[in-house]
Amino acid sequence: MRKSWIPVVILWLAYSVLIIWATAQFTWFPKEWAEEAAVVDEAMLLLQYLSAPVMGLVLAVMTWSVIGWRTEGGAHREDGPPQRTNRVVVTSWLVITSALAIYVVINPGFIGLAEIRGEPSSDYVIELQAQQFFWEVTYPNGATALDELVIPSEARVRYDILSIDVLHSFWIPAFRIKIDAIPGITTTAFATAEADGTFEDDVNLRVQCAELCGAGHANMAMPIRVVSDAEWNEYIETLADNE
Amino acid sequence: MKYVIRASVLAFAGYVAGIWLTVAVRGGSPTDEVAVVIGYILALTGWLAGIGGIEAFGRQWIGKSSEVSTDRGWRRYFEFSVDHKVIGIQYGVTLIGVLLIGGISAMIMRIELAAPGSGFVDLDDFNKIVSMHGILMVAVAVAGIIGAFGNYIIPIQIGAQDMAFPRLNAIGYWLIPPVAVALLLSPLLGAFNAGWTSYAPLSVTNESGQILFNMAIVTFGMSSILGGINVITTVITMRAPGMTWGRLPIFTWAGLATSVLSFAVTQFFAAAVILVTMDRVAGTSFFQPEVGSALLYEHIFWFYSHPAVYIMVLPGFGVILEIVTTFARKPLFAYKAVVASIFTIVGLSVVVWAHHMFTSGMANFLHGPFMILTEAISIPTGVIFLGILGTLWQGRLWFRTPLVIAFGWLFNFTIGGITGIFLADVATDIHLHDTYFVVAHFHYTIVGGSIFALLAASFYWFPKITGRMYNETAGKIFGIWVTVAFNFTFIPLFWAGMNGMNRRIGDYPDAFAGANKFASVSALILGASFLLYIGNLVYSAIWGPKVGPNPWNARTLEWLIPSPPPQHNFTSQPVVIGHPYAYGVKGSVHAHFPDAESPDDPGDGRGSDEEGVLV
Ligand code: HEM
Ligand SMILES: [Cu+2]
Ligand SMILES: [Cu+2]
């Protein structure tokens, strides 16, 4: 009984290694189509690794509770050892959990925040106006579209998001960016698409409304097509000419 | 029953009178929202007067003495009883009923989501069902443990005969049925489709069912606030001699902390929906973009609703800590640090609300501070885990149903807490916000942390409340079944959220079909487990074997009096002389009854067999 820390520590290590191994085995995230996506996925992966020892410790104590500390018998069994508290344990616990919390606040917290916000500069500005239940795109040359969003790759684009009725939210899962559309306020998001592709290649190449906005909310999505800079300029020109 | 009928008649009359008056004064149609509001207010007044307000309060206003129900037997559960034990059972049974209705709505949603496409219910109906489901379940989580067991157990644990304000306590309970009725009747006015969060401006422009939602929230809020004042006053002023703060049982501590929170913040949700109501019926424009602010609602709402998650889960901490010490036969590890942590959480919980708004477009400089404060909460939460794990350490663990469910709780809440970090981190939350990841996270914390504790508590205190023992085998099977099915239901949803599935949708891209089918099948299995739960408790309450005062050989005061407790709890004054959790300390006693003629039961479990059943 006295040596219970040995099996618990072994279990703890075993569970932690197992969780870390499982984390490394699978692809947890959808394909990254923008620079910002890599930042988010990296932050998430780091948090997954940091979670392993926490989950592992709880699992270890739970497992050893069942294997090592279970007793049968009813209400007349003996009591356990009357350990009330232990200053060293409590203090070290506090120090370790605080250190972990501070670490997480810094990385991926502030570091990720800085990376994902990036410079507020951009090569192009595309405006999206939300309304129940569709998006209207306005390109830099004034051309507008309702059926798809075409984006130049390798260019940093600023998205200006507006709403004319209720709250909506501009989300591109493939880029991992999201910002709400608020009537009366223009919000912004930045993303740099990395590769050419279309909604047919990946469902996550879509603008999805992510804030409940009424009956048509579930289907308030718009396909995205990422093309080269030149193709994109050509596309918005023809769009403007056709108007 | 006659009071319930009288109250229903008066409520109906009040509603009709309110509608009639409004139409007479201003014209318009009886379904105009102003008319509904006035009708609701008069209906609520009629209901409270009819259920017993006339006797309990009205008589005093004309100089007579007040009267309250003194019935024994089943009738008292349908009357304006001021006995905290009756009120506890009223809360418990009502909220388990609401839990089942909320559960049925969950089953409907999971059937719709079993495959992509929309067929079983249409998209707008889905939004209405998800909104109804959300608010019903939130109500259960907010009031379940504290309403049922807070009422029943806290006064006994501190050695009091009742709550400090018994009549307010009864009002608090009788405000709950109107909440359920208003919500469930809202489909008559088109239901509400803005989610339980009811963000403006959608909640200003949607169908009139939203008005009933708003009224229900205000009513429920009054109930929470009255309950909060009552517990705070009771714990501060009515402790038995010797019940110092250092000897207060942990469930009472948790109930006190919860009550401080619900007393302090509930009015913010009420304020938010009252402003929405004003925008709808009085032509104000709090949330209109040009003159008001569409973001304002979110701030007021989360100022209540983040602390509310601790209103839901702190009583859960109390229950689990209580169960773990009892079944580990060990003192509560780091008791003082745990109590300090509970109150640290109370403090921090009111300064983190904007972590729900990282993508809302609020000012950028706010993100850092709210991230720091949110992650700071993980430190006191960690100390509570230390209390649980340290108490289990080298214990003599007796795996009865309450402990089995407590283990399910521990597993679930660990996952809930860890995934909370992902959401507190701005970089990751920007992607995860408003996806199924959030849905999975808060089910792990609320179902895993609050509802599992409610289930564990209902087994733990069942013998005390009914005087009978539940069926152990069926209880254990239920405990394992519910834990496994719950995890199978929600684990795949983390994946769906990370991979691009947003929340509150009745239809989704085909890519998420697999995870959703798996979750739907598991959800039906999860739902089915509740048949075993209800069956076990109902059967055992009637036919279960009788138990003595203390089947678990526990030490807190509720276990030193007969099961079920006598009308005024204690036949002689308890005096507290030691720590409640000094398990394993030779000769230590928590409390005794110096004036008792013949001490009924010394509280050592004598008089019952190994399984705690009376011999
Ligand atoms: C370890 C502690 C926790 C942390 C760090 C945490 C963090 C968060 C964050 C940052 C969000 C917002 C996510 C988003 O919408 O993008 C969130 C959502 C939520 N959390 Fe937690 N949480 C914790 C524990 C809890 C607990 C104990 C409960 C309830 C008992 C809870 C219930 C909820 C609910 C209901 C939501 C979603 C609200 C909604 O959007 O409808 N959380 N949590
Ligand atoms: Cu939407
Ligand atoms: Cu929160």
Question: If you had to describe this structure to a student in words, what would you say it looks like?
Answer:
The complex is a heterodimer of chains A (243) and B (615). Chain A has 243 residues and is α+β, with helices and mostly antiparallel strands. Chain A has two domains: 5-68 and 94-117; 124-242, Immunoglobulin-like. Chain A contains four helices and eleven strands; from the N terminus they run αααβββββββββββα. In chain A, the strands form two sheets. In chain A, strands 4, 6, 7, 9, 10 and 11 form a six-stranded mixed β-sheet that branches. In chain A, strand 6 and strand 7 form a beta hairpin. Chain A is elongated and about 85 Å long. Chain B is mainly alpha-helical and 615 residues long. Chain B folds into two domains: 1-69, no CATH class; 82-543, Up-down Bundle (Cytochrome C Oxidase, Chain A), CATH 1.20.210.10. Chain B is built from 18 helices and two strands. Chain B has helices at 2-26, 33-61, 84-113, 123-157, 166-174, 176-185, 202-205, 209-237, 250-281, 296-328, 335-349, 367-392, 401-424, 426-432, 436-460, 462-466, 472-498, 513-543; strands at 575-576, 591-592. In chain B, strands 1-2 form a two-stranded antiparallel ribbon. The longest helix of chain B is centred in the first third of the chain and has 35 residues, at 123-157. Residues 599-608 of chain B have low confidence and may be disordered. Chains A and B meet through helix 2, helix 3 and strand 7 of A and helix 4, helix 11, helix 12, helix 13 and helix 14 of B. The structure holds protoporphyrin IX containing FE and copper (II) ion (2 copies). The site of one copper (II) ion has 4 residues of chain B, from helix 10.
